[in-house]
Amino acid sequence: MQIIINGILQGILIGAVGVAFALVYRTTKVFHVALGGLYSLSPYIFTMLLTFQFPIWLSLVVSMLIISFLGFALEFTIHRPLFKKDAPPEVNLIASLGAYIVIVQLIEIFWGNESQIVQQQVSQVWRLGNVSVAQLQLLGPLCVILAIGVIHFWLKHSNKGIELRALSDNSTLLALLGRNINSLRGTAFCISAGLISIVSIGVAWDLGFSPHAGLDIILLGMVATIIGGKGFIWAPMAGGLLLGLLRAEVVWFGSARWEEAATFILLVLFLFLRPQGIFASKTRLESL
Amino acid sequence: MVVNNDANLLTKTQTAKSVIKKSGFSKLVVENIALSFGGKQVLKNVGLELLPGQVGLLTGENGSGKTTLLNVLSGFLKPEAGQAHLIKEGKTIDILKEESDGLPLLGIARLWQDIRLFHTMTALENVLTAAPSIGINPFRAIFQPIKVRQQEKILIKKALNWLDIMGMKERSGSSGDKLSLGQAKRVAIARLLQTGAEVLLLDEPLAGLDQAASLQLVNDLGILAQETGKALLIVEHNQHSIIPIADYKYELVNGVINTTELRNRDDVA
Amino acid sequence: MNYLMHLMVYFEIFAIVALSLNLMLGYGGLLQIAHAGYYGIGAYSATLLWVHFGFGFIPGLILAGVCAGFLSLLVSLPARRFKGDYFVMVSIAVQALIYAVLYNWTSVTNGPFGISGIPKPEVLGVEFSSTGAVTLLYGFIALIFIGVISLLKTSPFGRALQAIRDDELAAKSVGIPVNKLKMQVFAIASALVGCAGGLYAAYVSYIDPTSFNLNESILMLSMVVIGGVGNIRGPLLGAFILITLPEALRFVALPDAIAANIRLLIYGVLLIILMLVRPQGLAGNYRYQ
Asked: pTM of the prediction?
């Protein structure tokens, strides 16, 4: 039971990273590795704001806004010019990799490369039978679920959200209809970055943070997106939960050292046996 | 635009004959091909036949499935039903079972509507890519470089010959993206010929050409079919330009082919 | 002087690495993110063959290449699909798996502690123990590989790869067996980088998994992308830049603490700028379409 709870909590976070990755990947076909850099950066900005005596909620909102803006900036300065030149996905990926390296190195130059924690604080532990959950452990997933709920609502009900879903299906058609693809792409990068900042700060609050955490987590998010299949919310979340449970089981029954291996074996199995992911059946296409 | 006079081209073709064997295949048979996209039945029951040296004109409205049929015959699409066979030297090749990259060497090659020359290569190199060569095996390329080079010499000769037949020998050194549309088409046809395929599927070879260039190309294609025994299936919207050289007119209407035999070719035009 | 030769050895090893990766990226159009993994497979298999099975230097090296090449076949056989994103994801997964195996299979690889005491290169009874001697030997080996690669490049095989890179559909339509060729170029590149891994192991005489992780793969990719893809001088330039840049930065007298960061920062900026203005790399001639 404890394993399952841990797996689900981890799975929600991985799934949320998957949602952030999918928002960009499914709409613009950009393999957004730099998102890992933004993930790493978020807690640094958050703690910096805290040291300026900002209240916690304001620090969270301001760092989310800053990271969202950076996400938009990445699209505006790198991927938009490449999109205009009709560059292939490989070129976008390499440029994104470059952006990731730049962000991480800047973090190290300004803040050093040691792991840090948000603040000293003993977490209250809740017990229910033989299951125990630290309060802090819940905080991240709760914020994340809230954020994803907002994004879900936005995708379903706002014009931009609906257009964004259409963008993932057929970008040329949308351009022909006279919609502004550039602003949509910017929005996707922006929201994706905002979401990643919440996930990242939630995790950092519980476990601390370091400059290099971003790449690993973004790979997990990518795996969740791929095994999830088509869609922005349910598919990556399902993929994330599957991964979270698997990883928790592996840690419990095997050893933590094989955690990464298990993740990528799962990915390889999916790529070979079901490359379209969990959610690919036609009935699921419309249901986002 | 390169325009040769007929006499010149004929002599070239005749000198070429010494090198080129007459085509070895005996028949292309296509029967009952059916294919639909997203519920829309594009091809219902399509059949046709071509013999060596014959020219088939495949025509029809936009979206009637001409290119789709070409994609099926060149292995890029698999139909839902039907058969297509190439009967060659006593063997029967099941076209629908083969991969698209295997068919050219088995005897069927296609020209793309948008030509698709390799833009970083010269015209000659473009033609050479189509040659079945032992040096395409990297181990032979490393360990038998002399043998590969010897074969290469023969292949270059053959390629230049095809370029010559298409009137493009002078441009053999020009890079793919520096050729005019008409020249690029001729190089692309030479590239098809280099594969050794006996059946050539040409997707709108005249599109974008002016009157003179069209006439010249049609004329050259007619001679090509006669002299080398290649069978040509030409998709063309503007049927009147092809009819003078065509043996059959296949018109695709609502997924079915109406065949018209054009026996006395010169009178029909 | 000795230090210069030390750099030279590194340049020779990484020249092979960059050239082999360029075979995949520049000729095969395959974005490989697991190159350091295959490099590591080569390094470890050569080491095991030399240390545990008493193989000679050259046979061990060749077998290391065979192992890495064989692994690439295992990866490409069930997939048989070499399309952009799909291949990238498979290669990221392969990189993670190779690293996990090197790190966790302690009974064979000694895990994070690595393997030390790898014998120095020895050819025909001559031991190459000084750095200068190794420079000569590795330079000779690198030249052989460059020769092989240029032979491949000018052969019908190279021309077919160029055709695939220009236009895959057109290549299929003239009878070029696209998947087979990609598999072959993948195997050759992996075998070459496997040999380079063996050379590295023999030179440094100690290996551990950290030299073969995802970051190393990204570094190798930067090398080729910065130098340029599609020819031989590009990757050589890339290897040269990435090996000499740290030395050049010494003259700027950066504080030690951030010197490494500045270097990586420069790589990152270079990657972005190059993708924006010159995606074929500084000295490359491959134009992405």
From this structure: 0.84
